[in-house]
Amino acid sequence: MPVPTLILVTHPVVGTTDGRTDDDHEARSQPGFVLADAALPQLSVLDLGVTRGDGVFETVMVSEGRAPAIDAHLGRFASSAALLDLPRPDLDVWRRAVLAAIDAHPPAPVLAVKLVLTRGIESGAPGAGVPTAWVAAQAARDFTLQRENGIRVVTLDRGYRHDVAATSPWLLQGAKTLSYAINAAALREAARRGADDVIFTSSDGFVLEAPTASVLLREGNRFSTPAPELGILPGTTQRRVFEFLKVYGYETDAVRLRASELGRADALWLLSSVRQAVAVVELDGSAVGFDRELTAQLNEHLAASGR
Ligand code: PLP
Predict the structure, then answer these.
(1) pTM above 0.85, yes or no
(2) For 5-140, CATH number?
(3) Residue 149: which residues within 8 A CB-CB, separation 6 or more?
C-alpha cells in the first residue's frame, strides 16, 4: 500500500493552546498545518489516542478531487469532539488541511481522507495537554465488487438498550471515537459466521447501525433509517441518499425500527462514505431482495455530486 499524504495540523483547535487567540489576525493568516512525511515516525507512544483510543476521527470520501460531504463530516467531527469534552476543532483550519492533502496527493479516482484529533500526550509527560491532530489522504480500497454483488450480513446484539445515549452519555454512543476495537471485533465475528458485515441491534430489539456504516431499509416507496437518538452515528452518506431519494418522490424517514422488520424489508443497504451503498443480499442466512438498478443509481449519485 502506498504511503499516505500526511498533514500535521499544528493549530487544530479554537482558542489559545499556543498563546494565539481567535482574533489574532496574524495567526489567522497562517495555515495552521504543515505537510509531513508519513514514512517517518510522527506520533508519541504516550499519545492518548494510541494508548486509550481517546480521540475522534472522520473519513472523508474524495471522488475525482471533490469532497461532496466535507461540511457534514466537519460538523460531525465537531460534535464528536464536544461529546468527548475535547477542545473545539477550528473547522476552517481542518477544511484547508483536507483540501491541501487532496492537492498534495497524486491524482487518484477515489481518496479516503482521514481527520484525527486526539487528547494528546498523557498527563505528567512533557507536551501534555495539547491535542494531537493530523490529516492523512490515501487511495481508497476498491469496493466495486461489493457494490455490484451485495454483501452477506449478520445481526449482532450490541448489548445496550436503544436509549443508551440518553441514559449513559459517558458511553459515547453516537461519537466517532478512535475506539473502534469493538467494531473490528464484530466484523471478525461476522467473518466467523460466514458473513461480510454486521447490523447491530439494541438489547431491547431495535436496529442500530453497522460497525462502519448506516442502515437503509426499503418497504415499497418508503425508505427508513434508524434515528440518531438510538445512540448511533448520523451518517453523512445516509443524508445524501435521502436527498437523492426525495428528488425522485420517495418517502424518507429516520425512525425506530424493530429488528424483526429487517427480515420483512423489500431491500436493505449499508451506507458509508468510501464504500458508499452496498445492498444486503443475505441477512442471518436468509435471502433479501436486491435492487441492482437502484443500488447502481445511488452509487452514481454518491460518487458524482457535490463540489
Ligand atoms: N456508523 C458508523 C459506526 C460508522 O463508523 C460510519 C462511518 O464510518 C457510519 C455509520 C457511516 O457514516 P458516513 O456515511 O458518514 O461514512
Answers:
(1) yes
(2) 3.30.470.10
(3) 281
